[in-house]
Amino acid sequence: MRRVFVVGGNCFARECCTYIERMAARDPDLRLGGILGHNGYGRTNDYRDYQGAFKGEMEEFDFGEGDYAVIGAAAPEIRVLIYEDLKRKKVPLVNLIDPSCIVYPYAQMGEGNIFAPFCTVSTQSRIGNANVFNGFVPVGHDAVIGDYNFFGPHSQVLGGVRVGDGNQLGAGAVLLPLSRIGSRNRIAPLAAVYKGCGDGSYYLGNPARRVGSV
User: Based on the domain organization, do 145 and 168 belong to the same domain?
Assistant: First the structure.
């Protein structure tokens, strides 16, 4: 039996619990282990129907054989901290892939990624670690995505796109084919990136233009 624990987060942790339960309905060897706080991040009043699943702080919890983790925080800057602490404790991470998602042959991905309902991952795409694809997000063929990125609902990563680390895309943002995105950017909802972005900046509009530094 594999137990999956959601580490950190609040409302998004609750969503992760539902994805685990949906996956467990198809895999009898999988079940929700519970929710763990991370350095005080994670409030039980946000867990609502999952309040009883809270098991305490990650640092004080003894993971056993067959235990895995996912990161219940959406913000990239928090995800990287939790990821590093889980690796320090040698806790393996799983990819949460809602049963409604489609992952094409020859797609590759690391660990700790979360795919909310109705995402698609096309052929020959390569995805790193601890990214969040928050519903109805297509990842096009030959796209390469780094680590700790957050893709809002209905955002699109089209064919041949390159994405660095720690970016946040708002709902409906589009990365057009072959565009190049650096790291730590914030791309506004409905923005359209035609060619690319640098690092550490805010982008807004269609075509997306830099409007400030993060």
Answer: yes
